Amino acid sequence: MRTLVLNAGYEPLAVVTFRRALVLVLAGKASVVAESGEPVVGPNEVFARPSVILLNRYVRVPYREGTVATRRGVLRRDDHRCAYCGKAAATVDHVVPKSRGGGDSWENLVACCLRCNNAKGDKTLKQLGWELRFRPQPPRGARWQIRELERPAPQWHAFLGSDTAA
Ligand SMILES: [Zn+2]
């Protein structure tokens, strides 16, 4: 059972165990903004199980470079839209094919529909006369540093907003 921690400005900050979340709430450092499932039964009290908590004070997070590009991350960044045709995408494509030295970087990975992926194969964009609908870039913002957000709990969605607005 995981709890999403929001910074005082409501941006996602971390994912912690619900026990850790309860400690923050009981210490007066955070407030529960969404609950889920069965309550937690302690020795003397019964607590609502927090699924989202909000820190009462803003925490400054140093910007960390070099978030690793993952398949799920690329699909999230590109809003599950194919970088070539704009249709719903479930796969990820290397813009410069691996066989031609293309790497697993945010700049070289894009969301891609199965049809375009099959058509593209090991070819370059130049060979196909294709163009990217956007320039792939590493995403910015704290939420991209949080790997657990690749599999968000249903209760978190209202607090995650648009991924592209990170
Ligand atoms: Zn496509």
TrEMBL record:
Molecular functions per Gene Ontology: endonuclease activity
Alphabetized InterPro entries for the sequence: HNH_5, HNH_nuc, NA-targeting_endonuclease
Domain HNH nuclease, chain residue ranges per copy: 69-118
Keywords, alphabetical: Endonuclease, Hydrolase, Nuclease
UniProt KW Hydrolase keyword: yes
Gene3D superfamilies: 1.10.30.50
Superkingdom of the organism of origin: Bacteria
UniProt name for this protein: CRISPR-associated endonuclease Cas9
Organism: Arthrobacter saudimassiliensis
Classification lineage: Bacteria, Bacillati, Actinomycetota, Actinomycetes, Micrococcales
